[in-house]
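Backbone-to-sequence.
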């Protein structure tokens, strides 16, 4: 994922969420709707999340240091994981609590046109943000389904924004349903039920994000297509005759470490092996540009041990 593409989607989501949050709190103040309060807190949490993603992207650009020789690319994974925690606690748990309180102590909505109007505005604004995230994702998604894209993406920003915006849109529909049923039935419990549904949805999305970013933090290998291209690029059929074993690891979304033991001819000179390693590294970087850190160990392939 390009940094510019991710940033564009994040900024679009941040602008939409700040405007929506202000509108929701105004609607809550005039109507007393718990759905509006939960949705307002949700939008504030989402705005904070986008701020965390922007901060993580900025910190990840720092140059490598002797203490951190492989750089700071994983900062983006750390801040992506923090987003899932914020979404779970401030968004989901708060909404569940607020919904429970509203079901336990229901009250009629006042000035119903405020929450309805704000919800319709919010759906339009979130739809714009979601459309931007979809457009940016489509540029790199290829033939992957959306679920595959979320699971396999090495850059956390777009999957996070996609899930946040999707959850926000569904949450807005749930809030609109809760407010609408409360108005139709005259029973404020429906507003509380809508709030509980919003909380459950946010908790579920947060758990999915946490699982995906945890995997990235632990360290994921290159995808199968990249591994195949790296193996093919390493072998020249002359000096480098095969790959004995290889490991890959993402140091960041756009930085890959490659470590491999390569087979060379038993009668090659040291100069020939050194030249072959340099050429293999160049071929790998041409085939997979994000393979920036490459360690190759030459060895003589023995059929029995292989």
């Amino acid at each position: 994922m390009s940094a510019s593409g991710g940033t564009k989607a994040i900024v679009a989501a941040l602008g939409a969420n700040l405007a929506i949050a202000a509108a929701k709190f105004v609607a809550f103040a005039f109507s007393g709707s718990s759905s509006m309060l939960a949705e307002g807190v949700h939008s504030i949490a989402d705005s904070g999340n986008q701020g965390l993603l922007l901060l993580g992207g900025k910190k990840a650009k720092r140059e490598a240091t002797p203490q951190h020789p492989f750089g700071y690319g994983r900062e983006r994974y750390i801040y992506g994981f923090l987003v899932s925690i914020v979404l779970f606690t401030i968004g989901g748990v708060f909404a569940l609590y607020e919904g429970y309180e509203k079901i336990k102590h229901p009250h009629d909505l006042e000035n119903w046109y405020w929450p309805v109007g704000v919800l319709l505005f919010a759906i339009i604004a979130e739809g714009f943000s979601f459309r931007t995230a979809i457009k940016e994702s489509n540029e790199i998604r290829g033939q992957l389904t959306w679920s595959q894209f979320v699971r396999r993406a090495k850059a956390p920003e777009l999957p996070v924004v996609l899930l946040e915006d999707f959850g926000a849109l569904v949450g807005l529909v749930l809030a609109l349903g809760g407010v609408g049923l409360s108005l139709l039935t005259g029973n404020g419990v429906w507003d509380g039920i809508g709030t509980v549904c919003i909380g459950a949805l946010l908790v579920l999305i947060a758990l999915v994000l946490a699982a995906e970013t945890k995997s990235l933090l632990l360290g994921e290998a290159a995808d199968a297509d990249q591994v195949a291209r790296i193996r093919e690029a390493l072998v020249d059929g002359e000096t480098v005759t095969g790959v004995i074993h290889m490991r890959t690891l993402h140091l960041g979304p756009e930085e890959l470490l490659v470590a491999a033991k390569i087979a060379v001819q038993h009668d090659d000179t040291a100069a020939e092996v050194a030249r072959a390693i340099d050429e293999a590294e160049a071929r790998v970087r041409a085939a997979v540009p994000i393979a920036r850190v490459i360690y190759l160990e030459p060895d003589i392939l023995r059929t029995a041990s292989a």
